[in-house]
Write a structure and sequence with these properties.
Elements: H1 2-27, H2 30-51, H3 71-89, H4 91-112, H5 124-141
Helix pairs in contact: 1-2, 1-3, 2-3, 3-4, 4-5
């Protein structure tokens, strides 16, 4: 149950953040807004680290494979693309496409066992679920 609730909260926060970031972009620029998001996220993480036990930072430099450390770069790209998508399509349509893309890529990673994810067997019902989500986008657009 916890996983369901926290995932729903994550999706809700992503939608609100996208609207906020798009508003900041209208007053500044996309890279100023994205930079602000990353800077404030860094500060929030630093404060959380400081107040929740201060686990050592050194093991970060022992993470292998090295590409796992690219999350911050992906975060900047995510911020940029969410801002651009919401600006072009509006929050609801952009969020629909973002979620379906997340679902498709996540299922692909499971099927192929990419990036250390445990490989899963193909299941027709999961593909059908993805197709229903795509159909939902089409219905939403009409």
């Amino acid at each position: 149950m916890w996983g369901i609730l926290i995932s729903m909260l994550s999706g809700a926060l992503m939608s609100v953040q996208g609207v906020f970031n798009t508003g900041v972009t209208e007053k500044t620029s996309v890279w100023v807004a994205a930079g602000w998001v990353q800077l404030t996220a860094f500060l929030a993480c630093g404060l959380a680290w400081f107040f929740t036990g201060r686990q050592p930072v050194a093991p970060l430099f022992q993470v292998r494979p090295w590409y796992l450390l690219l999350g911050g770069i992906l975060g900047a790209a995510i911020t940029y693309t969410v801002i651009q998508g919401m600006e072009a399509l509006g929050p609801a349509r952009a969020a629909l496409l973002i979620v379906v893309a997340q679902l498709a890529v996540a299922y692909g990673m499971e099927l192929l066992g990419l990036f250390g994810v445990e490989k899963a067997e193909f299941q027709l019902r999961k593909l059908l679920g993805l197709l229903v989500a795509v159909a939902g986008i089409v219905i939403f657009q009409k």
